Amino acid sequence: MRLPPFQYLAPRSTEEALEIMSRYKGKVRIIAGGTDIMNLLKHRLLTPPYVMSLKGVADLAGMKKTRGALVIAAGTTLRNIAGAPEVRSSFAAVAQSAGLVAAPPIQNIATIGGNLLQGTRCLFYNQSELVRGASLPCLKQGGKVCAAVKGSKRCFSVYQGDMAPSLIAFNASAVLKRSGGSRTVPVGTLFSGHGTRPFSLGDDEILTEIIIPLPRGIYGSSYQKLRLRSGLEYPLISSSAFVGVSKKGVIDRARIVVGAAGPLPLVVEEAAASLIGRKPDDADIEGAAGHALRIARPVDNLALPGPYRKKMTKVFAKRAIETALAGLAVGA
Amino acid sequence: MAKMKKQNVTLQVNGEAYDILTYPNRTLLEVLREDLHFTGAKESCGQGACGSCTVLLDGLPVRSCLLLAAEAEGRAITTIEGLASAGRPHPVQEAFVDHHAIQCGFCASGMILTAKALLDQTPDPTEIEIRHALSGNICRCTGYAKIVEAVKAAAAKEK
Fold first, then answer.
1. Nearest-CA residue of chain B relative to A54?
2. How many domains does chain B have?
3. Based on the domain organization, do B53 and B28 belong to the same domain?
4. Chain B closest-CA separation from residue A91 CA (Å)
5. Residue A320 belongs to some domain of the structure
6. Which residues of A touch B65 (CB under 8 A)?
7. Which residues on chain B are in Cβ contact (under 8 Å) with A38?
8. Residue A130: inside a domain
9. Is residue B3 predicted with pLDDT exceeding 80?
10. Residue A9, SS3?
11. Residue B62 lies in a domain
């Protein structure tokens, strides 16, 4: 499969990259690792005039511990995150997410920023031109009606990034830079909730860093992913759980996130509320996971049917909470 | 948009430098196969799902079909052609032959390179580690059992 024609830009510094973003505003697409966007280009789902590779920007890779947080540059590979002792010890779910993306050769080159800003997917959208040509264009292709939910005027494409649920569970922030400015926002606010345009970034902005605050005291976390085989697949449902306990052994913090159930990761507030104030041994995990089932609305547009994926949200949320509680420890 | 212009790219393949003039929208796989005639890397799915285009980039297996040739500049690229030394196959290649881990052969270069990268980092892997490392490579003939056996044998031999 050949790529469409484009002008290639390879900046050597973040400043140069930002300058390119503002000069070609809206006309340039970024290749970080490239493992996802290359397919969108090959399938002609994207045909940008300019393509900018960030592989040559050295300051976009690496991690550093600051006081009270871990700062991960957006171009850090998933391999380096999954294998980093400081991530595995303090942010288990984040390391698990990175280690469960696709397969090791993809993790060797895919980046945390690329994974976080991976476009929404749908069986009716992520197809070759030939397959797509057999039916009318869907909403995400600029058409007038959804192909997955017949007659719908809303796009049901699914956000299938593995990193976001765990980053949101840990209350991580994203640093977005533009020429002459920057802003830091919670990772959850990067998502618009619209399948056709799933992110709320400006055309001239680049995600440069992810900041994960180090939780205090005793806590545990876990990421659980449903897929048909244990390699090479996007999540069909996923769940991340973060649970903290007080010195008295009572759950005092919890965040449960469900992924791959719609156009954005869902924070299950009721699940967290039902866990807080209980001791881990007598927490109603089944009941908490049930709240995930109620808010997830997957439809028939991925490799498993919507109703089955809906049932699995509870199963995977439950597993995530159980595993997080089983791993309770003082953060490093 | 201005017309796409060819650009100079220097690639380090199997220890040798190659200067090529090519369009920027060409993948490393296309340049390796079509310009430099390293046809050991195969195009199968063309979208990163199968692993038949695997090459090593600075010692780690990557999909050459998902990497622009220009992005591989300055990195050490190893293809299956670069594994043999002094006319002798690499121990992983020998083990694949000895254990009948190659049938049609289309996945073999990717499997062997991925296995070599694993053994370079983890000389004595468990079966689970071998299966995990190879989980990004698809073989439609062997059923994988012979491949896993071959990697185990190569590890044992190098000990």
1. B71
2. 2
3. yes
4. 22
5. yes
6. 1, 38
7. 27, 47-48, 65-67
8. no
9. no
10. strand
11. yes
* Across A153-178, average pLDDT: 97
State whether residue A303 sits within 8 Å of chain B by CB. no
- State the complex-level ipTM: 0.95
Hey, are the CB atoms on B7 and A31 less than 8 Å from each other?
Answer: no
CATH number of B69's domain = 3.10.20.30
User: Among B67, B70, B135, whose Cβ lies nearest the Cβ of A103?
Assistant: B135
Mean pLDDT in residue range A132-145? 93
What's the mean pLDDT in A33-47?
96
Q: How large is the angle between the packed helices B91-98 and B145-158, nearest 10 degrees?
A: 140
pLDDT confidence of residue A219: 97
Query: Which of A55, A230, A231 minimises the CB distance to B71?
Result: A55
Residue of B8, B9, B25, B78 to mutate for A, most A C-beta atoms under 10 A: B25
| Percent of the residues in chain B that have a pLDDT greater than 90, as a whole number | 92
* Residue where the block lists tokens 């806590």: A219
Average pLDDT over residues A273-285: 94
Examine residue A131 and state whether it is found in any structural domain, yes or no.
Answer: no
A189-211 residue pLDDT tens: 999 999 999 999 999 999 999 99
A150 domain residue, yes or no:
no
Three-class HEC string of A56-68? CCHHHCCEEEECC
Count of domains observed in chain A: 3
Domain edge (last residue) among B34, B51, B81 = B81
Contact A104/B24, CB-based, under 8 Å? no
- The pLDDT score that the predictor gives to residue A154 is 95
pLDDT confidence tier of residue A332, bands split at 50, 70 and 90: low
pLDDT over 90 (residue B38) = yes
Pairing of strands B16-22, A7-9: unpaired
Residue B1 pLDDT:
56
Q: Which structural domain range is residue A30 located in?
A: 1-57
Contact B47 A102 (CB under 8 A): no
At what angle are helices A285-295 and A306-326 packed, to 10 degrees?
A: 150
Per-residue H/E/C for B14-69: CCEEEEEEECCCCEHHHHHHHHCCCCCCCCCCCCCCCCCCEEEECCEEEEHHHCEH
| Residue A329, beta-bridge partner list | A219
Chain A residues with beta carbon closer than 8 angstroms to that of B147: none
Query: Looking at B44, B63, B81, which one is the last position of a domain?
Result: B81
Look up the domain containing B136 and give its range. Answer: 91-158
Within a domain: B86:
no
Q: What is the CATH number of the domain that holds B127?
A: 1.10.150.120
For residues A69 and A206, membership in a common domain is answered with: yes
Same-domain status, B101 and B152: yes
pLDDT at B2 (0 to 100): 59
Measured CA to CA, the distance from residue B116 to residue B53 in angstroms comes to 15
For residue B143, give the nearest of B93, B116, B103 by alpha carbon.
B103
- Token readout for A147 is 């192909």
Residues B71 and B103 in one domain: no
